[in-house]
Amino acid sequence: MPDRRIRKIVILGGGTAGWMTAAALAKVNSPPQFTLTLIESEEIGTIGVGEATIPTIHWFNRLIDLNEADLLRETQATYKLGIEFVNWNGDGSRYFHPFGRYGGPHDASMFYHRWIRAKLAGATQSHTAYSLTTQAAWASQFAPPSNDPNSILATLGYAYHFDASLYAGFLRRRCEAKGVRRVEGKVTRIAQDPESGFITSLTTHRDELIEGDLFIDCSGLRALLIEGTLHTGFDDWSHWLPCDRALAVPSERVQDPIPHTRSTAHAAGWQWRIPLQHRTGNGMVYSSKFWSDEQAVEALRSHLDSRALAEPRPIRFLAGRRRKAWHKNVVAIGLSSGFLEPLESTSIHLIQSGIAKLLSLFPTRDCYPETAAQFNRVFDADVESVRDFLVLHYHRSVGRAEPMWEYCQHMSLPDAVTDKMAHFTHTGRIVLATDELFKEASWFAVMMGQGLEPTDYNPLVDSISAEENRAHLARIEQQIATALRSLTRHEEYIRRQSRQS
Ligand SMILES: Cc1cc2nc3c(=O)[nH]c(=O)nc-3n(C[C@H](O)[C@H](O)[C@H](O)COP(=O)(O)OP(=O)(O)OC[C@H]3O[C@@H](n4cnc5c(N)ncnc54)[C@H](O)[C@@H]3O)c2cc1C
Asked: How far apart are the CA of 483 and the centre of ligand 1, in A?
């Protein structure tokens, strides 16, 4: 039988997607079965943003054996307990999307129903009082989740903020030490097999020819292989997610970094603030239909809370996804596979999701169409569930009256969003498809934060008395208050962890 095993993998692109993919493939390639070559162009550069993550990053760090102390030191990382949304429901409004769970350690989804029941009976305590992660974020305290399932500390959840260019450089050094070959050059020629259409080689402007069996397109928004060569098509979702431009600018560190991202809504977009150890990352995401570039620059500059360290850098994009992220012998990972704006910091997660699916569906040189179709099916479901979560934020901006927000309040919605909102308002339930990325706590936080009011709860909660229900909630509140006092200041925790080896 002829050897159909993949022997040469070529990754085009050395941004976060390229180096994360290289790190994962290098890790599983032991003893070596294939060579790994990564081509990147310094002249083109990387997008250089993408500094906030979500808790699924822990999966990737474990996969490549990346320890936390190294990550904190090498990338100037901070901890992220969630995202604070400011003015999203009208000026002066504020809510928090925590990465941890609500309620006590054993409450699971019944917590929401217990709280709704108490609220409908007149209780005034906000749901945020029952989220240790939210309380810790607002107090700038930190602890990782406890392994003790009976502890309130088990409800905590976290991810990281890091410097995107330091992160890519850090992964690059690790990959090169593991034998990944890096080629510097701009790919100018792409050869395809005349019969199958499979890509066979890439040639750089220096006439260096690199052959491969499998090509990973990490060329960013250019999507040089998957779209530029294989023309797989793009689903434009800008009617649901109208922002199409961004400005990114670093500013000086002003205070001890807080353990959360802040997202502040403006007239035609929103501003991010990501605290790192050595600086603050800032940017404005906006819609060019509703704001000129000058208006966006002005709004960003006037809302920075420290001195800018550079001129705002413009970035253009279109919300949507590639119709086939895997086609023939090309797998698109990262921005080449599509882009959903960074409101919930999901792009790095989608890179990991692409990597995980590639590892489990790792092909032979035949790259059977069924394998690609399976990859595309599961990846699409992932992307669509993230899209729906983002759409909810825009659509439910009921407290804002500017034209862009009014457009979003009246736009037609993906069915899944309408369905989730109806379930929640009528029954207090959060209905999820299998394997949705954002779980109940996330949908609950954003639906409540954006002003959806549940009018009922799971009737099974009535099996306990109203008094018992109130006492249960009071106990959780007490546990959270006590636990909060035991946590460490975020800044101090970073310092301590960075010293570990
Ligand atoms: C405004 C904004 C904010 C974001 N914030 C977040 C966030 O907080 N969290 C998050 O998870 N994600 C975020 N993202 C997404 C995140 O930045 C990207 O997912 C991540 O950086 C991966 O990018 P990439 O590697 O796919 O592309 P890029 O960084 O653009 O890399 C592309 C690579 O391809 C190479 N290349 C292209 N063409 C050629 C060629 N012809 N020859 C050789 N090399 C070539 C380039 O040199 C480069 O190395 C954000 C994105 C934007 C636009």
From this structure: 39
